[in-house]
Amino acid sequence: MGETILVPYDDSPQSVDALRHTLQKHPDDDILLLHVIDLMDAGFSTPIDGTLPGFWEEWYESQQESSERLFEDAQAIADEYDVTLATETVVGRPARTINDYAEENEIDHIIMGSHGRTGVSRVLLGSVAEAVVRRAPCPVTIVR
Fold first, then answer.
1. Nearest to 7 by CA among 66, 56, 78
2. CB of 47 closer than 8 Å to CB of 22
3. 76-92 pLDDT, tens per residue?
4. pTM of the entire predicted model
5. Which of 130, 127, 76, 135 is nearest to 87 (CA)?
6. Fewest CB atoms less than 10 Å from the CB: which of 100, 109, 120, 133?
7. Residue 89's closest CA among 107, 69, 73?
8. CA quadruple 18, 100, 90, 42: dihedral positive or negative?
9. At 31, is the secondary structure helix, strand, or coil?
10. CA 33, CA 124: separation in Å to the nearest integer?
């Protein structure tokens, strides 16, 4: 029985690189893409009408749709390797959520891009990859 590999996945080129690395090096293992919807992202970009009824529901639905498109694009990449990906979208703070997910789901290995965030949020929130490496319950490979 192979390992279960967790690949945190967002819309960054680094997460695509991590996925390709995983597909090349672990074609016979179970590969799970995890997309974390970070509520802090909405907080930094909330418009004035963000307090109006329905804003958060619409924002969340938009994030879910974006996540599904990410997974469709990722599966297209995996199809090149004849691999079917498992996917999951969760809400939370990325580093903590990735580590908690790995622990709760008996993940054997995390493979992730060196960074995904850009701009102000990366400076304010620090490095997700670094936080995952420091607290992960399993081995972590960082792809740059």
1. 78
2. no
3. 999 999 999 999 999 99
4. 0.85
5. 76
6. 120
7. 69
8. negative
9. strand
10. 25
Place of tokens 């997309």: 35
Q: Please choose, from the candidates 45, 69, 70, 72, the residue with its C-alpha nearest in 3D space to the C-alpha of residue 59.
A: 45
Q: What are the tokens at 105?
A: 């789901």
Long-range contacts of 28-31 (CB under 8 A, 24+ apart): 28/2, 29/2, 29/3, 29/4, 29/5, 29/108, 30/2, 30/3, 30/4, 30/5, 30/86, 31/5, 31/7, 31/78, 31/83, 31/85, 31/86
Check pLDDT > 80 for residue 130. Answer: yes
**Residue in the block written with tokens 């690189």:** 17
Helix (H) or strand (E) holding 112: strand 109-113
Residue 70 · residue 10 · CB < 8 Å: yes
Q: What is the DSSP string of 41-109?
A: HHHHH--GGGGSTTHHHHHHHHHHHHHHHHHHHHHHHHHTTT-PPEEEEEES-HHHHHHHHHHHTT-SE
**Domains of the chain (ranges, CATH numbers):** 4-143 (3.40.50.620)
Q: Are 28 and 122 in contact (CB under 8 A)?
A: no
